[in-house]
Amino acid sequence: MVSEQRYKRVLLKLSGEGLMGEREFGLDLPTMEKIALDIKAVTDLGTEVSIVIGGGNIFRGVAGVVDGLERSSADHMGMLATIINALGVQSVLEATGVNTRVLSAIPMATVCEPYVRRRAIRHMEKGRVVIFAAGTGNPFFTTDTAAALRAAEMNCNALMKGTQVDGVYNADPLKDPTARHYDSLGYKDILTHDLKVMDASAVSLARENKIPIVVFSIHTPGAFLETIKGQGKFTIISEDKEED
Questions:
Q1: Does domain 9-237 have CATH number 3.40.1160.10?
Q2: Model's pTM, two decimal places?
């Protein structure tokens, strides 16, 4: 691991499921408060933070297709779910003293600001946490791809993927105690071995723009701050890293 690794500007990708806690669906306030405190610790360090949140805790578009819902409509419903999550996280962050703005790819002026790249960058330069909602604004694109896209547009130094586990493994560590943890990987390793980190479009976009993807546990208190500093346990995915 690189010690004292420091990023000036990052994008944090959170899954909707990561906000559920022990619930079967929806939002869990204690879980959100813990995540908000971790984000505050990172902003207090001086790192500029933006966030993309999934909507799987409320609505998963692909599942709607199985039920006979047209894919584009289902995906737009999923985008609206991300707006609900974004507003919830904004409220909790504001309660911890973090200035926050929600920018949506789907214009919704009475609820949040429309996404404008220069405006988003300006908010971050002023120390505000920017939450990007509604994915890319287009169907057939995941929030992983939206995260990679926004990270590139914001000139982020890293794409931080907050997950249920502390990095990338060759098997599910929650099911297989012998699963091997990777400290570092190359983008090609993720694509070639089909490791379930982010979808291929997101990894390819990060690779093209030379944005490292850092995978860590969002549920370990203080892990976000440690990862920003290059400490603790995580996996970094970048062009010049090879599979151990």
A1: yes
A2: 0.92
